[in-house]
Amino acid sequence: MTLRCDKEGFLRQLTDWTPTAAEQLAAAENIILTEPHWEIINITRSYYQQFNVSPPTRVLIRIIGAQLGPEKGRSIYVMQLFGGKPAKLVAKIAGLPKPTNCD
Questions:
Q1: Domains of the chain from N-terminus onward
Q2: What are the pLDDT digits (tens) for 90-100?
Q3: CA nearest 62: which of 52, 77, 83?
């Protein structure tokens, strides 16, 4: 399946997202998705469905902590999974728009 993405690799159409699309988007970032990745992707997609905006990093960390516990609700945990700009990369893999505070 060929994904239609913008120059930064975000999906042009949010409706094109599927778990298979997430795997492709992650592979383009040299990430193999595991269960911990999927937990965060699903939390991020749920947040977007509720608020119609991709969560910025601080909000993302806070909701991860609230839903998955304080061990996982830490920036370092999410950075180990997704890299240096985790909110941006999680949003990309989750098929969501780039968070507004990300460059």
A1: 35-93 (1.10.10)
A2: 999 999 999 87
A3: 77
Q: Which residues are within 8 A (CB) of 10 and not within 5 positions of it... i.e. 6 or more apart?
A: 91, 92, 96, 97, 98
Tokens of 89: 């990369």
Candidate list 5, 33, 79, 102, residue with the active-site label: 102
What is d(CA 78, CA 11) in angstroms, rounded to the nearest whole number?
Answer: 22
pLDDT of residue 1: 67
Query: d(Cα 33, Cα 83) in Å, to the nearest integer?
Result: 13
Assess whether 102 carries a catalytic annotation: yes
* pTM for the model: 0.93
Query: Phi and psi (nearest 5°) for 11?
Result: -60, 140
What angle is formed at CA 87 by the lines to CA 92 and CA 52, rounded to 5 degrees?
70
Give the number of other Cβ atoms within 10 Å of residue 37's Cβ. 19
Higher-confidence position of 97 and 1: 97
